[in-house]
Amino acid sequence: MTLTWTDWQAIAVPLVLAIGAVAVLLIDAFWRSATVQLRHTVVTLLTGAVILFGLVFVWAQRDDFKPAFCRPVVEGPAECSLVFEPLTAGLWGVLLIGGLGVVGLSAYRLLSADIPVGEYHFLLLSALVGATTLAGARDLATVVIGLEVVSLPSFALVALRRDRRGSEAALKAFLVSVLSTAVMLFGISYLYGVTGSLHLVTIANRLTGLDPDMKRVAFAAGLFVVVGFAFKIAAVPFHAWLPDTYVGAPVEVTAFLAVVSKSAGVAGLLVLVVTGIAPDGSDLRLVIAILAAVTMTVGNLAALRQREAVRLLAWSSIGQVGFLLAPLAVGDAQAVVGYLAAYVIVTLGAFGAVAVVQRHRPAGLLSDYRGMVRSEPGLAVALIFFLVVLAGLPPGLAGLFTKFAAFQAVIDGHLGWLAIVMAVNVMIGLAVYLRWVAELFLLPADDPFSVDIETPAVVMVSLFTAAAVVVSVLPSTLFALAT
Amino acid sequence: MNAILLGILALPMLAALALWALPITLGDRLAALYGAVVSGLVLVGSVLLWQRTEGWFAYSELQPVQQLGPNARPLDAVTDVPWIPPLNVRFHIGVDSISVPLIILTALLTFLCCIYSLKITPRIGRMRSLIALLLVIEAGVIGAFSAMDLVLFFVCFEIVLIPMWLIIDIWGDDHDPAGRKRAATTFVLMTVFGSALMLLGFLLVYRQAGTFDLVQLTNSPVLGGHGIPLVAALLVAVGLAVKVPLWPLHIWLPDAHAKAPTVGSVILAGILLKLGTYGLIRILVPVLPDATVTIAPYLGGFSTVAIIAGSLACLGQTDLKRLIAYSSVGHMGFVGLGIASLSDAGMKGALFANIAHGIITGLLFFVAGAIKDRHDTSDLRTIGRALYARLPRIGALLTFACLASLGLPGLAGFWGEMLVLLGAYDPSAALPQATFRVFMVVAGLGTVLTAAYFLRLIRNLCQGDPAENPASAFAVDLSRIELITWSPLVVLTVLLGVWPGLLLHQWGIL
To answer: Fewer CB near the terminus (10 Å): N or C of chain A?
Structure first.
């Protein structure tokens, strides 16, 4: 038994989230005397409070360094399994904001749907526990555990809608998740075999000293790990499951998949790239760069052809992942976290707006949005703003500057060809979102969308809009998350 | 001074937001009046920025002007605050003798468009949004003309895209919804691609120099004519050339102009194209001087091809607005050639032609829009001939604008092109002299072609037997609002024609 030490503050957030998850489940199960309405409110508030605690904690401790589950090593730095450092703070901030947003979105749709409130919030919080663990993980075992704890609740959430589409979507997500875990474990076992350690710091140290033959094995092992993550974040060519799953799930769960689940995958990959298996100049980074180029191109091109709002968002989220992978391929954590933050906020907003429209027009076609700028100006303006941020054009300065940072990272990393591919994709991406914006602006329509929007929806969409405006006016806040 | 500049940047932007906040029931005329008042204030502010300063390529904020020698160009109305520290981006604006005339041109054309919209509106209405978008474009363009930070320039450059896309897509030619949608999308996508390439160039500059600040970059430019600086210069030049537009990147332009509403065409041709040439003069030449020398012959070559190709395309046009659009390609070719010559005369010619083109083509598109409104088509064959008999005043104004545009001495169009030819005759010593002499000769032929197609236009449209081309029932001649809107442009055309020194002295002594 080796001596280990832990700064318990480092795991305070995942711990509190886990306790919250259990508490939510218990309240829902044992407090049967209360009305559904009341239970829903209490559960939502409790979930929100737990996540808010996490955010406050992250904000208060953002400059600190707190290791957990560490043990000394004879030579070299201590090996820790979980570390809270500024990068972790940035990723946790993004993940928690995403979780809070999903909770907010769920507040105005769930009651009418036939979905158990307690389980839903339990699964959400559990996934957040996994996501935060993954973002702080510094050894491969913790990475796998974190990833599994994100994934298992994810397809349970997808399956909450008990119809044929929901089951199919859940099954797809499940199979892909299992497959990706298998592939990743295979890679990890080789990495362990080559380096004799699971700790990222040690692996990084030993990788540099390998002889060429073993280097090739290590490259293959790293490739398997990257492919495992590529399934998770739906990078092309491992993306086929995503559009059907997104469409099959309830909109809030889709938002969860697009925001929390995807961010967790990106966070895990980022941790691996910057701390361990893909040091500067390795072939793995080139693989990620190629993955980025293919992902953004295929995602955007496919999005161009979509006629349903959610499918368009699904494909364009693949394109956005491509843009996220680009700075990741050069290990620029600041650009990745900034991009992720902007993406999370506006994706939540876009799904929030889509949820409002889809509630009344279940078909969810783009043409359902025609003329909304006149018939439903508030919602239309908010949606246009989110889309423009996703496209990265003024007035959506948050999107523009995060894309800018991605470009800068790629240029500084001497990947000129990737920068050109990105430039082409800025153009294609703009074409994707402008199709939607054009529908919103078109006048006249026979039957433009116009309803009394529920107050919680108004509040949430306004909040997302306000957040998007703030990060557009002060883009430096996005990059302050991980310095 | 800097309060004025900040004011004319913020006022149109805030006014546009306020306009959208007003109720939809706001009348079209009231919206136009609101726009006219706001843009009128901006015009007054921009004129106040005008001062008599002389100088060329060197800025100074830290040192007194005298220490930089005769080539110093002081910067006025400076505001310089950090904006995004993690990316090293600053909000740095200021104006000098190059930007002020362009800012005034922007303010003037926007003001005239708003005045014009008081009476003459696109059929679809929705003036509230149209005016608001015009104001947003105005703010964006003024921002680009005063930006002293590469990233800020890029942002302002992009601000105008979506508003212009909407203007073409919504208020464009109502006979051809599919066509106007395609035109708008082509415009916005090509420009975005160009600006993304330009951004790559900026980032390469940043990697070399470690700053986005134009003043610092101008005072200590990125030297070297090969390798990274050359790639950066190519990216910046191509990105801006899409906007200029330089042949063969001009393919978005004819459709965009032909389908845009009158005010859209005026803004697009009169102001937005200038962003490209301004960027070339402000950024490419001073920041990447050696690399510019390397690519200047190619820039000059493509510009010369643009002059000829634009003129030949004009000879084949049967659509009035497309013809004027193609003539812009030719005129902007002259501007490009002047910049490529890298000589004092060529640069001044380019700057002068820039302004002159904005005024004259603005007038041309106004007149063309008036003719199109009266005949409900801009097809020359359908409009018929004998405009002198049917619409004598409008016909006369069209002739005046055509003559100014073809470079008749005594009108504004002449001086710019003459100086450009002079510059091409005697280019910077670092450039191949013989090549530029050839360009000069070919460009000289281009002026002849320009004269040919404009005279052919006048002959085919204005002259002819009135008996064969009876007047349309509703075709009234020049209305009062048109007179009011166009007369400043006519006056300026004559004024700059007889007194070019008004602008040329701004830029130093020849």
So the answer is: N
